[in-house]
Design a protein that fits this description.
Shape: globular
Low-confidence stretches: none
Largest sheet: 6 strands, parallel
Distance between the termini: 39 Å
Radius of gyration: 18 Å
Strand order of the largest sheet: 1-2-3-4-5-7
Helix content: 40-55%
Structural class: alpha/beta
Strand content: 5-15%
C-alpha cells in the first residue's frame, strides 16, 4: 500500500522498556523476544530504523555499562539486516531523561548503527517545562531567568557536542500547558506526570503550545544535521480529552504549515 502511494516508512516506533533488565529476569527475556519480533516487522514494512525510547520501568538497573551492553546486543541483532537504532530520551525515563544521558549511552555503545532520535518535546519538556507546577515551568532558585540561562546553555552544548551523523531523526511537537497542574506522583499504571502529559497534550508547533520548540530546533541544526524531521503529535486538545480529528487532511496541511514556519524561524 505504501509503495502504491509513493510513501516510505522512515522508522518503526516506539520500542519501549528494552534496556536495563537484570540478567536472567523475565523482563530481559521478554525484551529480547520482542526485539526479534520488531525486526520481523521492520523487514515486512521495509524500514531500516528502529526507535528505542529510554526505559521508564522502575525495575531496571541504572548501571551505564549494563544499559549500554543491552543496546550493543540490540545493535548486533539489527546489523545483519542493515538496520539502525535511533535512541531517544523520554523525559520521564528512569535513567536517561535528557539528551546528555542518551548521548553518553550511545557513545558507550560504540556501534556504527546507533544514533539519536532527538525530540523538541522531550528536550524542552524535560529541561525547561514541568507539568506539575502552576507556571508550567521547572521552578528552581533564581526563577525563570536562571532556568532560561541553564536551558540555553544545554542547547548550546548540544549544538557543539553531537556529531551530525549521530542524529538520525528530529521529532517535532509542542505541548499545551495543563489547565491544572498534574499530580506529581505516578498514576495507577505507574506512568510519571511527564509521560501522562506526553500522551495527549502535544500539538503541532504554533498552535496553542508554549514550549521553546524553535530554540531546540536551532540547536539541532547547529550540529549540521539536515536529516529527517518527523511531526510527532498527540493532540487531545488543550484539555487533553482525546479530541477527535475528523478531517485528517486538513490537520496534515496544518502540520505542514507549522513545519515550514518552524524551518523559517529556526533559520533566522
Amino acid at each position: 500500500m505504501c509503495k502504491e502511494a509513493g510513501l516510505k516508512i522512515v522508522m518503526l516506533q516506539p520500542f519501549s522498556n528494552f534496556e536495563g533488565w537484570p540478567e536472567g529476569s523475565d523482563g530481559r527475556e521478554d525484551a529480547f523476544l520482542r526485539a526479534k519480533g520488531w525486526i520481523r516487522i521492520m523487514q515486512a514494512v521495509g524500514t531500516d530504523m528502529l526507535q528505542v525510547g529510554s526505559t521508564d520501568s522502575p525495575h531496571t538497573l541504572s548501571s551505564l555499562t549494563h544499559l549500554a551492553s543491552d543496546l550493543q546486543q540490540l545493535c548486533d541483532l539489527l546489523a545483519p539486516h542493515g538496520f539502525r537504532l535511533a535512541y531517544e530520551n523520554w523525559c520521564w525515563a528512569t535513567h536517561a531523561p535528557d539528551w546528555k544521558d542518551v548521548w553518553a549511552i550511545v557513545q558507550k555503545v560504540d556501534r556504527p548503527n546507533i544514533g539519536l532520535c532527538l525530540d523538541t518535546f522531550q528536550t524542552a519538556g524535560g529541561e525547561w517545562a514541568d507539568p506539575t507546577t502552576a507556571s508550567g515551568l521547572i521552578e528552581r532558585e533564581g526563577g525563570k531567568e536562571a532556568l532560561e540561562r541553564q536551558f540555553l546553555s544545554s542547547l548550546e552544548e548540544l549544538g557543539k557536542t553531537i556529531p551530525k551523523e549521530k542524529i538520525y531523526i528530529l521529532q517535532i511537537s509542542d505541548a499545551y500547558k495543563p489547565q491544572q497542574p498534574l499530580n506529581a506522583e505516578p498514576d495507577e499504571q505507574g506512568l510519571r506526570p511527564r509521560g501522562r502529559w506526553s500522551s495527549c497534550l502535544r500539538p503541532v508547533p504554533f498552535d496553542g503550545g508554549y514550549l521553546p520548540v524553535v530554540e531546540v530546533t536551532k540547536a539541532v541544526l547547529e550540529t549540521g544535521f539536515r536529516g529527517w524531521f518527523s511531526m510527532e503529535v498527540f493532540d487531545g486538545g488543550p484539555d487533553g480529552q482525546d479530541q477527535e480529528w475528523k478531517d485528517m487532511g486538513a490537520y496534515a496541511k496544518k502540520a505542514m504549515r507549522a513545519h515550514e514556519r518552524l524551518l523559517e524561524e529556526a533559520a533566522d
